[in-house]
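Why does this matter for the project? Reviewers at the last site visit asked to see concrete outputs rather than summary tables. In response, this paragraph embeds two records directly. Each consists of the residue sequence and, immediately after it, the corresponding structure tokens. Nothing has been edited or filtered.
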Amino acid sequence: MAPFLKSALRGLGLAPAAPKAGAQAVTRTEVSQAIVGRFYARPGERKRPAILMLNGSDGGFPSEALARDLAQSGWPTLALAYFRDFQGEPSGVPKGLTEIPLEYFDRALAWMKRRPEVQGRSIVIMGQSRGGELALLLGSLRPDVAGVIAYSPSDRLWQGIPPQDAPTTVKAAWTRKGKPLPFQTNAFDPGKPMKAWFEDAVPNKAARIKVEKISGPVLLISSTADTLWPAAAYSDAIEARLKTSRRVANVTNLKFDDASHLLMGFGPGITQMKIPGADLTFEFGGSPGGTERARDAGWRAVKDFMSRLG
């Protein structure tokens, strides 16, 4: 792998972390029947609150380092793949973020509930960006979900992202019972910053996630300096609607003012990514120092959130 890609993956939290001295071993179980994921838990763990962990538009498996850290802290974690990453991995999932059946995630939750390590009534869904959108959506549809942790989320459903070798036909990202869910289309304009594509989008009320139907606590983590989409504004909208619901136990809305869009995890993060062989640079916002501080503070908040579940 090129040094650039190794660095990028490490910054996204996708590179394995070295085990801490004296740390109890964490096992990784590969899952490839009905769902594609990696399950992390300490040997002998029984009936613990657990996490279903989801990537965003980067696809592939969620971070090994982060999943191991959560499992090491006592929360078994299923790092679930639901479409392929830019390297085409893993097999067994769709190539792009297009028309993903929500029943796939129902199977993932059912699989977790059968595990002896997992307390079935205490499963939290955690995701970043499009994964945060998905976590909120699943929480709104599944009253058995114990809570939602949404990094850099959206309060609405957006269009799908087709694989690079597919036609750019606009389709839904998610389906349920074989039908595409309503979505909002961004106002793509190569002459404007990406954030403006979302800010200028024509609203579609039907695409709003019914977050007020979430029954467990919700943790929102975002940055006002996010340059991909207005996640902090979306988080404020989510918070306002959650507070009108009597079903939600509590909502915490953490916002940082000098941090990247890519906040899920701990330690250094990516604020800019140059694509090798192309005159293209993604700006994620914030400064390196502000991003690291935000990631560390957010990760502490995640662990506090999980500790309250047991």
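We now turn to the second protein, recorded in exactly the same manner.
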Amino acid sequence: MRPKSGTNFGNSHGAGILTLLIGALGGLSFTFFGLPLPWMLGSMAATALCVQATRLKLSQPKRWRGYAIVVIGIMLGAGFQPEVIAGARAWVPSLLVMALLSTLFFIVAYLAMHRWGNMNRLTAILAAVPGGFSVVSVLSDRYSADTRRVALCHSARLISLLVLAPIMIRWVSDVDLASATLQVFSAAEAFDPLQHGALALVAIISWALGQRSRLPSALLLMPLLLSAGLHLTGIITAYVPVSISVVAQIIIGTSIGVRFSQYQLSQILHDGWLAMMIGALLAFGALMAALLVARLTGAPAAALLLAYLPGGAPELGMVALALGIDPAMVSTHHVLRVFMIVAALPSLIRLSTTLTERES
């Protein structure tokens, strides 16, 4: 089925700026109404609505998302302070639970996609993977999967997780979601040319290393590791300026929203609706697990919830940063999940191919 027709601005920087402006208006609207995570959810909602309700086909240069992910990696790395690392041993039980949950989540999502989504095995496998979209998109291009359906399912599930995350956090913690963004602005540190210049250098080096690395999610992992090491040793003590953080959130939000320009409403209602329902089911599973592990270990339930939600390492890491919910712990869980996905997917794809050949 062909995508919607409309006014196409291509992948130019002009189209990207227009997309960011629409995303920023969405963020301002969410801020005005006191809605949580305004810059990411507001920009996502504004662009998704715009591409579906109008004839505009918004786009964003691919590199811009990469730049935003590098910024997020640096921000997450800054959360690795000495006192955080001292308590990192307490994460081991939670990491084991995350691994088990991710496996269970994958099985549930795969069975639902294969049975009710009318997908072949390979497409259902890639659509059901709990995160690692960049890795999954490469594999879906390489094999005979329906790439557009895989992308739609991941995007729709991520939207359901991002929408439900603030609601569930309010249930399990006393985080004031409505004022979290304003608190970040009020606590902004003064500009330090030396310290912030060092952060800019870390960003440039991370981008160069990430572009050349074959590691999964390298654009997130490289700045995270460099920033963590420099903050742990005290060489750098500064944080990413709030204004740059906001721009990164808008880029991440709009990068999700513009994906929906590729689909007709009927496709969204079929695959997208199913993926959102699966995402909601898995989110409640993550909530139950977080409450149980929090009771057994004493770890904060809100951080466990963000760590267990199945997908979107940059996006959920950004949620943890925006709300100040233990970003080091959350990012560690999601990075480990990405490595699990990379390790498991080749075997799953081979199994799928073998079963399909036997049936034919």
